[in-house]
TrEMBL record:
Belongs to the FMO family. The keyword Nuclease does not apply. The keyword Oxidoreductase applies. This is Flavin-containing monooxygenase.
């Protein structure tokens, strides 16, 4: 009788839950999930704490109060479970997403598979398999495990990135990264500068504008779509050139006095538990990965959930099932040379398009093709077109009118059609 394939899953956030669900129901696979905290949900678990947790490890949560999703819930779910039918709004708060993940875990009986309060400290190849060292945090003991495959599901939002700006270290006001931001109360009556035009920067600028004396939003875009969608209390500014005391000098030679600066400048990927001989290199993006998730050097390891600008939970589900099919022998991966050639081709296209290295995991125009690749190569059913169409529509609405795009309500009609209620005029993009 063939021995079960032992699979380690690192993290019990959305990716880890999805991995556990599909591994547990696949004949011959035996999953063990390591979760550092005492609960499931990963980044969707809100905490007032910042800095270090009770174990002296970095607080994982980067949520803030009043956060609402920047995608409709209709394209933020796994294929097998929708959100509760009584939820009318498409854009929901973080507690609703966390409840959804708990419902998913309960429906598929995932919790018994999870070792809570276990911190993975080292993953290293061992023969044809893997050695994992994990600390039982409450008991302060280390344990070593052997596995045949590893699914890294620890999430991408790990180490905050700060810009390097002249005088930044001597700025005399409040400074923080968006990872540490929890509530706008700290900005009451203050002049606030948010740096970064991603979702966090725009969200925090809008939230702060309700209570702050004045909000400035610094960005590096030459042309900004939807500029008029910000309230009068938010003034758009170009890049910051330097700081002096509480004065901020911008590249257009304007100067503003601000009381607080919040850096909404993103994160860098960080997998400190992966030994060097795992073969994974992080240099603004994660490499070498086949189709952005399978470790080319050691293909019994995958890193789930890296691609951005696509329906995230659906992408996770497709990556997980693709990898599970490789473990079951239903999918044969290309040779190392073929996978490396595929990766190099992807990188060359991105270089021609003058993409920054840190954007190499973003699915700008090719999100439909990415899902086709996952389904074709992973022996999976094609993704219904409505999901990409709805994602693209929601993405464009946010670009055009960030202040009001969450008022739109979506309803899926069939595999190719959806409708929008309470939204601005609709343009569907494939």
């Amino acid at each position: 009788m063939r021995r079960a394939v032992r699979v380690a899953v690192i993290g019990a956030g959305p990716a880890g839950l999805c991995a556990a669900r599909h591994l547990a129901t696949a004949q011959g696979l035996l999953p063990t999930v390591f979760e550092r905290s005492s609960t499931i949900g990963g980044t969707w678990v809100y905490s007032d704490s910042v800095g270090k947790d009770q174990w002296g490890l970095p607080v994982h949560s980067n949520l803030y109060k009043d956060l609402r999703t920047n995608l409709p819930k209709e394209c933020m779910c796994f294929p097998e479970l929708s959100y509760r039918a009584d939820l009318e709004d498409s854009y929901v708060d973080s507690a609703t997403v966390l409840q959804y993940l708990n419902d998913y875990a309960d429906q598929f009986n995932i919790r018994p598979l999870i070792k809570f309060n276990y911190h993975v400290k080292r993953v290293a190849p061992m023969g044809k398999g893997w050695s994992i060292t994990a600390e039982d945090l409450p008991n302060k003991t280390e344990e070593v495990y052997s596995f045949d495959a590893v699914m890294v599901c620890s999430g991408p939002h790990s180490i905050p990135v700060y810009p390097q700006l002249d005088g930044m270290a001597k700025y005399s006001g409040i400074q923080m990264h968006s990872r540490e931001f929890r509530t706008v109360d700290i900005f009451d009556g203050k002049r606030v500068l948010a740096i970064g035009l991603g979702p966090s920067g725009m969200d925090i600028a809008l939230l702060a504008s309700k209570i702050a004396k004045k909000v400035f939003l610094s960005h590096n875009k030459e042309k900004l779509r939807g500029e008029g969608s910000f309230p009068d209390a938010v003034t758009l500014k170009p890049n910051v050139q330097s700081f002096k005391d509480k004065l901020v000098y911008f590249t257009d030679e304007t100067v503003e006095e601000v009381d607080a600066v919040i850096y909404c400048t993103g994160y860098t990927h960080h997998f400190p538990f992966l030994s060097k001989d795992c073969g994974i290199v992080v240099d603004q993006y994660v490499s070498p990965l086949y189709k952005h998730f399978i470790n080319i050097e050691n293909p019994t390891m995958c890193i789930i959930g890296l691609p951005k600008y696509c329906p995230h939970l659906l992408m996770i589900d497709y990556q997980v099932r693709f990898f599970v099919n490789t473990l079951l022998g239903k999918v044969t991966l290309p040779t190392r040379e073929e996978m490396m050639a595929d990766l190099e081709n992807d990188i060359q296209i991105r270089k021609i398009e003058k993409q920054r290295k840190k954007d190499y995991h973003k699915m700008w125009k090719d999100r439909s093709q990415y899902f086709r690749d996952l389904s074709d190569l992973g022996n999976l059913e094609p993704l219904a077109p409505v999901h990409i169409q709805m994602f693209s529509d929601a993405f464009l609405r946010a670009l055009r009118n960030y202040q009001h795009f969450r008022e739109s309500k979506y309803r899926i009609i069939d595999d190719e059609h959806f409708e929008v209620i309470n939204g601005v005029s609709n343009t569907t993009v494939n």
